[in-house]
Amino acid sequence: MQTVTRFAGAGLAEVKCILWVQAFDAETKQMMLAMFSLGDVLAGAAVPTARLSASASVLLQLPEQRRSDFDHAGFSVWQLSNDLYSGTEGCRAWTEREGRNGSLSFQEMVSLVPALLLDPGPSQLCIDMCAAPGSKSQQLLQIMRAKAGKAEPEGLVVSADVSAQRACLALYRVLSNAESPASCAALANAKDFPHMLDPTGARLEFGGILADVPCSGDGTARKNGQIWRSWARKEALGLHSLQRNILLRALHLMPPGGTVVYSTCSLNPVENEAVVLWCLRKWRSKENVDVELLDTPALCLAKCGISAAPGLDRWVVPSPQRGGPLFSSWQEVPEELKGDGVAGTSLRQEMFADGCDDIGGFCAPKEMARCARLYPHRGDYGGFFVAVLRKGFPPAGTPAVKLTPIKMGDRGAGKKGNRGHPLMTSQFGPVRREDPWWAEIVKFFGVNAAWAEERLQKGLFFWQRLHGNEFPERLLLVSEAVAKLWAAVPAAPGRQPAWVRLGVILFEQLPKGFQTQAALSRWRISSEGAPRLGAVLGSRRACLPAGQLLAMLRAEHRQMDLELFSPQLLQLLVNARPEEGGTRYDCGAVLLGVEGLGLPGWETCWLPAVLTPRFLRLLVDDDASEGLAEAMEEDAKQQIPLSKQQVHPAPVSADHPAPPPGCWAGLAKAAHELCSR
């Protein structure tokens, strides 16, 4: 059993710094008493994403851990204590695997709050300003999908991050699992994110902005022992300027009627109330459009079912030096600690509730009670802070501010010769009807003409090129809002976001050197695109008996000899024709499906594969294949014998609604059964 006693080696001075609010905050005193008496430490919240996966057995055994209060947002949430997470046989390994596979998002319960409070509509334009690793962006996309119903969301979520490594690795992977045309990722500095203008000069209005800013993370001290050893005053104080610059930029980007959600996983008022208070004072002192701080505790209760404490209206600020004094007002700070020096080495007037003299009267500290603090002892979750702000409308007759788009040359994300991750060389461009690669894909896979033409006319197909190559590596599908954003230009020079990902990948190139001579086309179906293409490909696809697909998943290299498949199946997949010495097949990518899994609303699962001269091979990774195999084995216990299921072509319809991307069997069934109890 894990308890907070494992942090007993923390220095008392630093513990005191983490808890400097205790001088004025009775809630913090209660929190500490509760923390040191708790037997368990929260391991996290299992949140099935759009790609539901794996065996239901683990979660079905834990119905009492399900948080049905999140169902209204389209989330299926299980809250697991550390004791259960580590002590239940197979639970930890299963959860970690499904997290890698994208079936689950494993995080603190309170991390769900910002996306639920922002609550975007299906056609809204949103920015996640500090997105990596991407869980909150994924939640925003999930909410938009739930509200769109059977249709695709028309809006977008821009997932921005200042780190190239985070944007190209963690963030890219999470958005790949989200499988949403409304997603896009950019390398961009949150405090400098530009106004984006369409070709007519009209401003793109980001009606929902999430600013989950970098913070000291002291709210995670209950589960993260490293915080107790590494936390320092200088780091916490040094983040204040960055945090307020990000929030102030969000207020400028927000259109009238728009919403900004500011959040941290910290209980430090210098990173929380002090930031919100200064930004409101700064904004109201210069702008004629008001920004209102909404009653965030009430919103937390209404939208999340979480009881939150109000924000603080007074607090203390520590000296940067370890073990130094705490100050309750700017007047108490000695002159040698005042100034605008290196971040974390001095104190600034805006860190205090009394604030700066010139703008202090524009927002009273008592207004900070409308912020929300989430304390661990109140709900068995981590410490968290959140504030919801909404911009009003300008007075009647106020002239609109005219922004002029700058002239742009190449709007691609990268340039040939860029070092680092290959995605930093990405170049994106719309698909044109005359492109030879487009004609090849349509002919080779028999893409439904009506489905393709509708999206082609709207400009929803994009090529992605890498390393400056003329030949594209991927074919992408995006929402109308993402296409519009790509065509937009910034209102200020030097601030063009570097796009590393747009929408969902439908097709991509086979690996270099793989079946170079045998494959008739180098294009293959991507894992994230397979569910969308099952209903629109007229050739090179078929549904297998579940038993045969399960055998492939369990086979070495996930491949089986062609002699083990029926001629009927191979004829459906490819143009099989007899020749002297045997049968000849048109080798290359194919799409395999399995039907009859007994899932409500999901009868077919599609997987990418490739046909070689000797084998039929699935193109899925280890985690995905293991999760699906377990799901099929679980489902087979309750279904008809696998041998009775027949091979047959699946229907093609241009009007077929987009299925839930990548939905595997077990977890969807678990959610359905638990919700109906």
Q: From the helix content, strand content and strand pairing, which structural class follows?
A: alpha+beta
Bin the helical content: 25-40%
Oligomerization state of this entry?
A: single chain
CATH topology of one domain: Rossmann fold
Explain briefly what this protein structure is.
By secondary structure, the chain is α+β, with helices and mostly antiparallel strands.
Describe the structure.
It is a single chain. The strands form seven sheets. Strands 4, 5, 6, 8, 9, 10, 11, 14, 15 and 20 form a ten-stranded mixed sheet that branches. The protein has a five-stranded antiparallel sheet with strand order 16-17-18-21-22. A five-stranded mixed sheet has the order 23-27-28-29-24. Among the domains are: 122-130 and 204-391, Rossmann fold; 422-500, no CATH class; 523-675, no CATH class. The model is unreliable at 1-24, 28-57 and 640-677 (pLDDT under 50). α7 packs parallel to α9, α12 packs across α13 (273-286) and α20 packs antiparallel against α22. The chain is globular and about 90 Å long. The chain is 29% helix and 19% strand. By secondary structure, it is of the alpha+beta class.
